[in-house]
Each structure stands twice: as structure tokens, then as C-alpha cells.
Predict the structure.
Amino acid sequence: MDEVEVVVAHSERATLRVGDVFLKVDADQARVDVEVEAMSLAPVPTPEVLWRRPPVLAIAALPGTALGRLGEPSTASSAAWTAVGAAVRRLHEAPPPPWPGRRRRDPGEWAAELDRECELLVTNGVLPADLVARNRRVAEAAIRPYTPVFTHGDLQREHVFVEGDEVTGVIDWSEAGAGDPLFDLATLTLGNEGHLAEVAAGYGADVDLDVVRAWWSSRALLGVRWLVEHGFDPFAPGCEVDVLRARM
């Protein structure tokens, strides 16, 4: 090996790649505990845990390539997206872990958090008021009762690996827990609406598309300020702000 690749780094955690090993550095050991336990319980392929020496967790690289990246068109086949939908369905049908997902909220609490964030986005001039108001109305459909299932909690395309038309594994389980199944589907397809039908076909159950779209708006609204503050660019083409604009 001749280099260390910084995969992601911000004030909460960092992930490095050294050859075929990923080193995850996280000061929150509870979050690492969740990740290791969730990978042991999930009925889908996950990376091998090589060793753990707090605050570092070492896991083996998965074969294949990531399903895609936010802001970039996915090169994965339609069949691969459908296979991912089927894998997510297997996860959601498994017995949920005995802890709530980190993103699980009481509906009233979630609505209040969303309202506070929307007010800050407008007051601080981050986004136009009409864009925020439209997406806040769309997001309302996600604030509803649901039956908690085994969710990944942060099922971005970067966290799903495929080879050909097969799913080879899913990484980054630190947000896993009992949660909303449609949040997983929305995170997976955020900014890639054209693949939603393929994912839903693989999932094989009725998927409320209005709720998925509501989660797109909600996740984007809640993510913009955090991303800016942690050195990411939600205004880049195809990213969170474009997701919000698409709802207009």
C-alpha cells in the first residue's frame, strides 16, 4: 500500500482506507457498539470486523463498487437497484433490534424540530422562504404513525455495494435500530428519483411514494445547515438543495 485515503472526516468521526481495510475513528463508543451489533444481526451481507481498539474499528473492504454517490448519476444496472430493494425488504422483515434508531422521534417532536430548522434556514438567509415553505408542506406526510422495523438508518447509495446485479454488502450501521422503513427507502433514493420504481419493485410491497418524497424533503431540510457547518456542499448539483428545488 502506498497511500491512506480519507473517505470522510468531520468533527464527529472519520473513516480512512488503507489498502483493503477501512479504519473508522469515532469518539462515541455507543455509536460503534450499535454498528458492530447491528452488523451481527442484519440478514444482509455486511463487512467483516477485523479488530476493534477504541476509538478505532477496523473492517474489511467489500467486493464490488458503491451503488452510486449523491450528485452523480449511478452507473449500476436497473437489476442492481432492484436487488437492493429486495435486500432492504429482507432487512425490514427481520426482527428489529432491541434499541430505537437514532433518528426515531415522536411525531410531535419531529414536527417541532423540522419547524425550528425551517425557521433558521429562512432567518439566516440560507434558503428562500418559498422553497422552505413548499418542502415543509411536502414533509408533513412523513410525520405519521408507523410500525418500527429493523432499519439501517443511513442507507445512502455510498453505503451499498454491488457487483454486477448482486448486492455484495452494506456498510456504516451506526444509525441502525428500530425505525421507519420508508426513511430507509427515501435515503437510498434521495437525489435519484428515477430509480425509485426499481427499488420499489425489488422491495415487493406497497410503498407509499408520497411518504418517500416527504422524507426526501424532510431529510434535505434538516441536513442543509449541518452539511454546511461540517464542510460539505448541499448546493452542489444533484445534492440536497436540488432535491428541495425538485419539489417546486
